[in-house]
Amino acid sequence: MTLSEPRVSFPRLAFFYLETIFLFTRSDYKTIFFPVIISATATAPCAGLKQFIHTATWVWIHLLQANVSNQTYSAHEDVINKPWRPLPSGRITVDETRRFRWFLLAICLCLSGWHGVGVFSASAALSLVEIVHDDYGFSSDPVFKNLCNVVGYLTFELGATMILCGLEMSVDRTSFVALLTSGLLIFTTIHAQDFADADGDRVSGRRTLPIVAPEGSRIYILTALPVWSIALSALWGLGPFCGMFFLLMGLFVGSQYFRFRDATHDQSSYVLYNVWLLAAHVLPMNARSRLLTW
């Protein structure tokens, strides 16, 4: 069955559409959706239920747009890394995916414009990053890929934070520092996602850090996570117990990447990395609530 197949009952077709959309975004709830929502909630100076619903909707529709755009070009590697995705599993064609991608871009810009100039600018910047990353091949270079990841992640967080604060409310100093440190954190550690995908990246000709420097990249991640844990604990004023716990998290995740080097363990390590990253995005909450000073 494909999206263009005729004579399908409406309930079955509706379920097929919903499942296909979910499969586009399935990998990134733990990497984008929940971390961005939690980060915006932790750093925004104000929030209400209405703003939270609007924020979650905005993040999700932009996540779908980003996934559809990226997966338009990654079907050949997804056959190895993620065969359940809509394109390699035959649920949708490349032409249908490309049309869907541009339709989503228009929807995202219209939705963002409703929230104001600031959110619209974040959406436009995210769309531009997707174009240079996917259409112009920036994803094939480890440095440019990381830069695209940083800018993309920051636009997600900036848009979510502005919506959560209310229409056109400015981002305060705490939110600005949180966004800046988040960008640096992503830029210096995001290659943690590339270990599990190394086989598919080799097939597509991508030069990710685990492929270019297989040993050095693992030593680096082993060192970087504890160093970041110490730096973030100091920046956000964590207490001794919370700071030590966060440091132990970084040490544990880094050691998992260094000790276990097969694809299965790398997938498990990436899940643990996302738990650590999620915790890192919660820490700015301490600047407002002082709940983590013990």
UniProtKB/TrEMBL annotation:
InterPro entries recorded: Prenyltransferase_related, UbiA_prenyltransferase, UbiA_sf
Organism: Paxillus rubicundulus Ve08.2h10
Protein name (record): Uncharacterized protein
Membrane topology of this protein: Multi-pass membrane protein
Top-level taxon: Eukaryota
Gene3D superfamilies: UbiA prenyltransferase (1.10.357.140)
GO cellular component: membrane
Membrane is among the record's keywords: yes
UniProt-annotated location(s): Membrane
A Pfam family hit: UbiA
Entry keywords, A to Z: Membrane, Transmembrane, Transmembrane helix
Primary site of residence: membrane
GO molecular function terms noted in the UniProt entry: transferase activity, transferring alkyl or aryl (other than methyl) groups
Transmembrane parts of this sequence: 102-129, 149-167, 174-192, 234-258
